[in-house]
């Protein structure tokens, strides 16, 4: 359920709606293991606050009986104790009061310490568990989820939202107990001491409650606007820092500064809107509670001064009791002012936990059968059997609306893979070629089961990839992509990533096979050199060779090379090609390549266009065909200058379509 519906541009709206009883799960599922610190926190908080109320009471006693005329044991606060326990001489009574006040301070300090320990350790433990559980769940979500969300948005769930829960569990719970104990405690004490004057002192309380309620209602949409504009500032900054190369080379610093200025100014305005309301609220609250104070002072003071009850009141009012009233009405204001804060913290925590638990409840298109058998690879034979696939996302929904070229907007119109079938025998190499956007990478993503097919099936040695465990499926494959991402860590760590137990000898062996050993040795600290973000920068070709070494070390049954040599010069390409030839020798290999020279020895070449296989065969056979492949080959080998008009027109049509849908 979405308890708070004022946050309209929440990118996690969908997740929030599907989250089931998030606050209950937060407290019961995640809080339960730490019930001990939570209980200590709660109990100590109640005691600590109760002790905070004692000094005013004892001051009243001291004024009225030690310095005044009243009998010590007849004092209302002391009437709960047996008379025999109480001292009789004024000196002893004085010492008694001082000792009790001092004791209450010491004990109060101990309870405050325990309360702090309890709430803090409870909230830190829960925060840690929620964050790791959310991350764990998040990284297992389908690729679909990641391609539809911005990194900043996901980061903000893991950091801001989790912190919000921590704040609520710590400060929120703390303020809530203080509020309850102080308001009920003071109300009780005032009525106990003098019910008539209590009515006067507490008269503004309903007013304070109404005033705070209205404030909370008004400030919520403002906070939501602040949250959304913070998101916009972050997205802008993230985008700009990521594209700093383009900014510098296009000389657009000024333009970007203006854009940052714009979003930052909007943030300033929305934030100021909220601040303005807040700074009006507190003085307003002070005025209302001031009324209570003045009324108490007026009525109580007159009562004490004249020694007769004013107006409808009866009985007497002691000076000490009057002083206690004055002190208590002061002590009441702050917890009441926090009332709005507590509600606000609760609602923010609720929105955060809706995002977090909604994310945890997220169900991907890929159905995971936790009990599925491990894949059993014998020859490594792969079959694509009438496979069709479309990406199911917002991007393509909007494509339908603008895609004028097909006109029909039917689901077939945006099939990315359209009924393709082929077999690869174990140990064979199959190459996928064709224009950008033809669907080559998608064919391989389906094999890795990053997405599930919409129709048809993909089988490895007769086993449908959907029927075996995802972990064993991916363990059996090695992947070298176009963009070889390196983690921040040593070269060695990057090579052993996924094959963690390997020893130095095996690593060096793998690096040699990938033609990477030589350049690694020349790095400042060899295999121990830090690379990746903040580390030594490696060139695209070097990164690719590290990725190939990683694949060599993994020794997978099936190898996927997604333009593995795209980033390197011709000389390095030759070297890498040699190592790849070794690597692919007796394992099933899928290779995507733009440079046809790298795949001309493949056992089978599939030419893709618009998600369909338009030609297939060996290099020699395809050259004889005189189709797209032979012409591409001709251009790349420098035998012909340009593709025939027919192919150029097809490419232009395709590009025009892509541009329309890019808008
Ligand atoms: P290729 O590898 O042949 O260049 P791809 O398989 O990468 O082609 O892309 C095929 C089509 O699928 C393209 O039109 C591309 O825009 C689209 N596409 C690729 N990835 C996604 C994605 N994550 N979500 C939506 N559409 C995608």
Question: What does this entry look like structurally?
Answer:
This protein is of the alpha/beta class and 663 residues long. It folds into three domains: 348 residues, ABC transporter transmembrane region fold (Up-down Bundle); 214 residues, Rossmann fold (3-Layer(aba) Sandwich); 76 residues, Rossmann fold (3-Layer(aba) Sandwich), CATH 3.40.50.300. Helix content is 60%, strand content 9%. The protein is built from 23 helices and twelve strands. The strands form three sheets. The chain has a six-stranded mixed beta sheet with strand order 6-9-10-3-11-12, with helices on both faces. Strands 2-1-4-5 form a four-stranded antiparallel beta sheet, covered by helices on one side. The chain has a two-stranded antiparallel sheet with strand order 7-8. A hairpin with a 2-residue loop joins β4 and β5. α2 packs across α12. The site of adenosine-5'-diphosphate has 12 residues, from α14.
